[in-house]
Write a structure and sequence with these properties.
3 helices; mainly alpha; globular; 6% strand
């Protein structure tokens, strides 16, 4: 994955499967930590994910 769209691709994956798994969440957190900042487009993608979760269209999957 290109470094510039990793977060957006992970958000797209969560939206597609309608599930935020611990693995996807960890990958997002790792990428945010690695970058040390969040771009406007990544912020918008994460904001969309949160809106979808708040609306109940994306479920948070607990760790096994």
């Amino acid at each position: 994955m290109a470094a510039t769209n990793v977060i957006r691709q992970l958000v797209s994956k969560a939206l597609y499967f309608k599930r935020l798994t611990p693995e996807i969440e960890n990958e997002i957190n790792t990428e945010l930590s690695r970058l040390g900042y969040i771009s406007d487009t990544d912020y918008e993608a994460l904001e969309l994910l949160m809106e979808e979760m708040d609306a109940g269209r994306v479920q948070l999957v607990p760790s096994p």
